[in-house]
Structures are given as structure tokens and as C-alpha cells.
Amino acid sequence: MGLTERTCVVCHGDDHFEVFDQPTEAIIGIGDIGYHHRIQICRNCGFVFASPVLPEEKILLFYEKMSNYEHPQSDGLRPQAEKNQILRYFELINKRFPPAFKGKALDIGCATALGLSLFRSRGWDVVGLDPSPKCVELSKKYYDVRVINGFFSPQLLEKEKPFDLIILCHVLEHLLQPDKVIKELGDLLSEEGVVYIEVPNLLKPYAPKCYFGFEHVNFFTPTSLANIAEANGFAVDSLSCFDNGPQVSPFYPVLAMTLRKTKQKFQMKNDMGEVLPVIEKFKNESGELVARLQATVRKILEKIPKGRLALWGAGIHTSQLLSETDLGQAEIACIFDNDLKKDGSRLMGYPVEKFSGDLEKIKKRIDAILISSEASEDIIYNQISYLEDHGIKIYRLYQRSQPG
């Protein structure tokens, strides 16, 4: 599979060096590809990005077919932590407009359009854009919000403009050409309009196992996010930093920025001196975590007979866990996942399947389940903890990771 080489999308320089390598040998929906997510830093401006990356057509197909926001375990309804995040940005955005203002809003990557439904409840005209057909269906079912099925394209939205608000909540970190997208937003936005961007905060890379997951190809700081906005016709209107936590999705720290159009020139800043120590600290913590996970996995494998352990979760965490610990060479019964799209696929040779819930069949097949997720560990545990009353051991790598 040919990979795509990238240069810095902020300053467009080509002087960069590798600072981190995250092996991800297999990805559901893409295949067993032996991929390494290599993280670079630009010497000219300090921007951090992935290169080389998977071909864009592979990435787009993954987002179209393997959306993480359909929430099959809750019939498409968002968990409370995601609702809390959406309510927060809804209130933050409302403060950027006059009281009782009613405009037109576009949410790019809107998932099931809960955020847009809140704006519509205040009299806004709203439209969403999302690559997942299922999310389009759920947006109509639960909120009666019109969502266009597809990826961002100015031509696709030409008849919809102008917008008074454009939302990109956890979208920009996924785009191979975020600079181009930001520049094109200017033509879609009204003169007094606002762009809301929310992205992970690289200065606080909390999740040492999955922070540099393959889906994220751009890693922003307040400086680099301002740089890319200002280089493409926008001025920073406001900046907020949130540490999040278990009650707000995503659980790691984020940046929230509002932008307005401008014709003013700006001076690009270089924050490489601030970023490098953060990444070095992250590398050390990541290495220590992988070592702890490896030790835990070995203890579990020693206790559970070969072929009697199942994993729960066929996402990026499991891909990395299989790549970096003994699980990749172990005899695993299967990988359970709530997402029906993954049912019948394989991850590094292990079958992925929907959990049947048939207790007798489960007991005949496995003795234990290892939850392979940091972000959703509590949700998964609450779903299957009843199995412990019937002799099926549940292992948690984070809150309760030490096998007895």
C-alpha cells in the first residue's frame, strides 16, 4: 500500500524531523497493513503532523464505512459525556453572537446532529455534513435535522451559503489539507460570521496509548492553530482550553477557538521549543505505559488457558495493543465489539464478532474478557460486568488493571 508523504500544512515548509513512531499493524476497515504512524515536527514553525500517512482514499473510505459516532450500544443516542461536550460548545458559541440572534449554521462532521438541534431550538436554520449514511439517518430519526451525506466540498455547499456559523468539532486533526479547508470556509461564511474549531491540545497529550492514533494526522497547539487560521484569512476571536475528564468527551484536553474573517497580515510564530519537551515527556510516559500493559497482559495470559481469553473492542487501542504486546502472538478466542459494521471481520487474524449475550455459549467458549479501551472502559465494563457473577473474569487495563 503506497503511503502519502506530507509537508507542513501551516508554513508549507519541508524541513521536518521524526519525533515519534506509533506502530499500528492492523486496522479494522483497512486491513493488516503493517502501518507505522510517524509523527514529524516542522523546524520552521513547530507544527506537528503525521507523515507519511495512509492514502487519502483509504482514510475517506474508513470514515464513510467505519464511523465511531453511530453508538450502536445505545441505539445511536450519544452518551452523556458527549452531550456535555456539545452543551459546552453550544453555550460558548452563543456568547459570540448578539442575544436572540438567529442565523444559519453548518456543522462539518456533525455525526448525529445533536449540536445542530440545539441551535435550531433557538430559531437557527441548520444543515449538517457527515460521511456516515447511518449518522445521516440517525440525525433525521432523533432530531429531524437535515444532514448532507458526504465530505467537505465548497461545491457541495454552494447553494447553502452564506453561513453565520461553521462548526468543525474534532475534524481539523483528521484532514490531510486543513489549510485548504480553512481557506475555503471564508467563501462560505457571512462577513460577520464565526467559525468554531475544537481539536485535541498537543500541549497536554493525556492519552499515552492512543494519542497519536492513525486517524489524527495534525496535532495542534494554541500557537499552531492560530498560525494556520491566520495564514488562511482568519483572526482569532477567542481561545479556550479545557482539560475535560471522564464527564466530558473526549476525556483528554482540548482547544476551542472561534475565528472571524480578516484581511490583516500576521506574523507566524514558532513554538517548537515549547512542543519538543512535551513530546519527549510523552514518549517516556508512553514507553512506560506500554511496559506496564505488557506486564499486565503477560500475567493475564499466564492465568487464562490458551484460547480461552476474548478481547472487547476492535478499535485503534486494540490495534496498537496487538502491535506492541504479547497479545499479537497469543491464542485469542475472538474480539467482541458492539459495532455491527465490524462483525465478521478480522484483526491480525482474530475474528471480530458481536457479543451474543448467550451465557451458556459464552461459558463454554471463554474464561475471561480483557477490555481493550481507555476512553470507553467504564461504559464497556458496565455493559458486561454481570458476567463476573457467572465466573467470567473481566480485566480492565486502566482503573482495575492488576490481575488478582
Structure explained in plain terms:
The strands form 3 sheets. A 7-stranded mixed β-sheet has the order 6-5-4-7-8-11-10, sandwiched between helices. It has a 6-stranded mixed β-sheet with strand order 14-15-13-12-16-17, with helices on one face. The protein contains 11 helices and 17 strands. The chain is 31% helix and 25% strand. With 404 residues, the protein is an alpha/beta fold. Helix 3 links the parallel strand 4 and strand 5. Helix 2 packs across helix 3 (114-121). The longest helix is centred in the C-terminal third of the chain and has 32 residues, at 272-303. It has 3 domains: 16-64, no CATH class; 67-270, Vaccinia Virus protein VP39 (Rossmann fold, 3-Layer(aba) Sandwich); 304-396, Rossmann fold.
Topology:
Elements: E1 16-27, E2 31-42, E3 48-50, H1 56-65, H2 80-94, E4 104-108, H3 114-121, E5 125-130, H4 133-143, E6 147-149, H5 154-157, E7 163-169, H6 178-188, E8 189-200, E9 218-219, H7 222-230, E10 234-242, E11 254-261, H8 272-303, E12 309-312, H9 316-324, E13 332-336, E14 346-347, E15 350-353, H10 359-365, E16 368-371, H11 377-384, E17 393-396
Parallel strand pairs: 4-5, 4-7, 5-6, 7-8, 12-13, 12-16, 13-15, 16-17
Antiparallel strand pairs: 1-2, 2-3, 3-9, 8-11, 10-11, 14-15
Helix pairs in contact: 2-3
